[in-house]
Automatic annotation (TrEMBL):
Pfam families the record matches: DUF3575
Matching InterPro entries: DUF3575 (IPR021958)
Annotated protein name in UniProt: DUF3575 domain-containing protein
């Protein structure tokens, strides 16, 4: 009798440990640390924006975004942007839900320009301007169990140094992104 009881207890312990390991494995799949994203919004406007994000824990991440404008007819002002960021998530799931973001941006914009009513350039007052901006943003992120992510965000940053040499004193961030977490 004691022997049967001991075998049952050992078997129960083994299966409980096995179930906990499976639960931990599923949890680890949802807590993938790396993510790459493409911004569909800017792609439709003639630019390419890609983002790498590293999830530090359930509530925070760091990343870097790069934007290059290849269709100058649609966006005549921005040439490129490189923007590191820090995010703080407030959702229940791992690195998902509503977030706040602080970012810095190094980028190039066109110098001061004047155009006529037809969009023709009438006065060009200078070369491209390099500047650094600091700003804040907010948005939401949703992640599937398979690792696909969807993100919507907006943000605004102010130029710090050369806003007098261009028509712009701020940089805005907009994203409708799809990505993969691995």
């Amino acid at each position: 009798m004691k022997r049967r009881f001991l075998i049952i207890v050992i078997s129960f312990t083994f299966f409980t440990v096995k179930a906990q390991n499976q639960k931990d494995t599923l949890s680890q799949l949802n807590e993938r640390k790396n993510e790459v994203k493409l911004n569909a919004y800017f792609t439709a406007l003639g630019a390419f924006e890609a983002t790498y994000e590293r999830n530090l824990n359930k509530r925070s991440s760091v990343g870097i975004t790069g934007l290059y404008v290849f269709n100058k007819k649609r966006d005549e002002d921005t040439n490129f942007l490189i923007s590191p960021f820090y995010r703080r998530y407030f959702g229940k799931k791992y690195a998902s839900g509503f977030f706040l973001e602080g970012f810095g941006t190094f980028g190039s914009t066109d110098g001061k320009q004047l155009t006529d009513m037809d969009g023709n350039l009438t006065l060009d007052e200078g070369p491209d301007v390099l500047d650094f901006s600091l700003g804040f943003g907010f948005g939401g992120k949703w992640a599937t169990k398979s690792g696909i992510t969807f993100e919507v965000m907006v943000g605004l940053g102010l130029h710090l140094f050369n806003s007098d040499k261009t028509d712009h004193n701020s940089v805005n961030r907009r994203a409708l992104s799809i990505g993969y977490r691995f």
